[in-house]
Amino acid sequence: MQWSLFLFILMGQSFFCTCHLYVYHFIGENKTWDEAQKYCREKYTDLATVSDMTDMERLRKSTETLTEAWIGLHSYPGKYNRTWYWSLPGLKFNENQTRWDSGEPNDKGENNHLENCVLMVGNSIPNQKWNDYPCNGKLKFICYNETKQTNKSFHLINYTLTWPQAQRYCRENHTDLVSGLDQLDDNSVKSGSDVWIGVFRDTWRWSDGRNFSFRNWEYVEDLVDGQSDKTCATTVLNRAGKWSSADCNEEKPFFCYDDKLILISESKTWVEALNYCREKHYDLVSITNVHQQRWIQERVKNASTAFVWLGLRYTCTLDFWFWVSDEVVSYTNWASGVESDDCDMSAVMERGGRNQWFKKPDNETFNFICSKD
């Protein structure tokens, strides 16, 4: 039974897929931000959402034009419209897991500077107390680095920069500003003075409603909120794609994106889900890197079941896990202790928590995600 099903899966669709989960389109017409948003929603999916530096490189390479263009980021000014984020893309900020010092955050910046960035008090280690602080202040900072071999290291940078400058330095020379309680609790994270960590807040939101925290501002004023009439974001391609804020009524070219995924809210067994995707769309979704994991987990959060089927199945006959799209199983996100091998099992992603993968019997029923092409 296992061998015949494996052959059926491969014969039904045997190829090596190098497609992207979404594609960017540069539109050279000059439109206001609202007009650009309407155009993208009618022709594609929405104005461009950018989740990390991988996206930024793809966005820049989608056109040879060196100009300023709208992306799908819009600000809703107001002191009470701000949301806290971790700097590291894909890491969710939990309001119930913080290290605020007594009376913090207090937003008591001088000269009307809002305190939208966070420092770790130098003499608070090991308790690691946090203070909110104006982003244009200059402090030392800690970078986090993770290699392909998953080796993690932390680097105290002993000269002072503003928070956006520190973030840019860490991203260009390491991975990002130190982010998340797991990183902050590492024994090698040490400092004798106040340092920037990867926490910030702002009023900017993505047009498609996604909650990505990635920002690529060129100037600190844009992170802090900018002027009230500059509430739409652009990418300035002749300045390495750095972002700037602009008046939404200005007319500029823009980037749209077209999503190649669809969440199916019906509950089906794994084989039923596979057949549905292949008959009506393309295939059950594959995940081959952390970048795709971040994009897909945003979609999974809207599921009506606690888990969502992926296109990953275990074959007892050949004793390995395989993607139905023939992609190599090079990246995984298994929850601890569940990756052992069992017959008649396929992979799901959890809707909540850390969006990790679990194995479930094929005859259970869940929502699932299809790739469109």
UniProtKB/TrEMBL annotation:
Residues 1-19 form the signal peptide. Residues 24-144, 149-257, 257-371 form the C-type lectin domain. This is C-type lectin domain-containing protein. CDD domains: CLECT. Pfam families: Lectin_C. SUPFAM superfamilies: C-type lectin-like. Keywords: Disulfide bond, Signal. It comes from the Eukaryota.
